[in-house]
């Protein structure tokens, strides 16, 4: 067991991979808690599509993938916010149009690059073992920035997430808080794409937060539990990938999914077994003396 735990750390590429999945798991767990609190899972999926053309353009131009993805995500988010002002169209309709279009643009741009098939596969499904030292530093800086902003705006985000009308009545700038959260989701997704890929990154953002939601009713505790589950899923998935020689991104997501199913069944207050036990107890007719 000790050899199993220590052997992967002897390789530099595995050390970098572990650091990135740990940081991505923590950051996505924190940001994902706010996304889950607002019921915005579709936004996470849409943003994952929106960042793709920026990453593709940056890849073709041999510039920073993180910067390219963030710029593309923010431009698309602002475009959605502006077009959504037309009340004839619902926001989710506008999101679907823009983000599907952005993903199509990314595929077209990527097709102009040499080695198109392999490059596209690495972006869609992740390439955590190919992460460079510069990528680790970028993820650490961006992740630290996100955690600081989340801490500074925590109360405002929670107020808007729980009751938008109350938040509006007390004078909170709801539009700009929404844009800030979209921007933070964009950055969290960009720094996590290399770990699990564009298609699977939504799971790293949503699943740990969903687990935490089943385990606690307190928002503060949720913000602690979700990143722990995200980091745990990343570590276990990467160990399994090393041992079984299987895709790291897929195993990370499957580990998070397994944790979710365990929480869904065994959660102390909201798990399936708890509800069944409560129903059975309620159905028992007390025996009168």
**Structure class:** mainly alpha
Radius of gyration: 21 Å
Q: What's the number of extended β-strand segments?
A: 0
- Bulk shape: globular
Please, how many helices? 14
Could you give the order of the helices and strands? HHHHHHHHHHHHHH
Can you tell me about this structure?
The protein is mostly helical and 289 residues long. The chain has 14 helices and no strands. α2 (12-38) packs across α11, α3 (41-61) crosses α4 and α7 packs antiparallel against α10 (174-196). The model is unreliable at 279-289 (pLDDT under 50). The chain has helices spanning 2-6, 12-38, 41-61, 65-83, 91-110, 116-125, 133-152, 154-162, 164-169, 174-196, 201-215, 219-244, 248-266, 272-283.
List the helices and strands and how they pair.
Blueprint: H1 2-6, H2 12-38, H3 41-61, H4 65-83, H5 91-110, H6 116-125, H7 133-152, H8 154-162, H9 164-169, H10 174-196, H11 201-215, H12 219-244, H13 248-266, H14 272-283
Helix pairs in contact: 2-7, 2-10, 2-11, 2-12, 3-4, 3-5, 3-10, 3-11, 4-5, 4-10, 6-10, 7-10, 10-11, 11-12, 11-13, 12-13
For the structure shown, list the relevant keywords.
289 residues; mainly alpha; globular; disordered C terminus
Please give a quick description of this structure.
The chain has 289 residues and is an all-alpha fold. 80% of the residues lie in helices and 0% in strands.
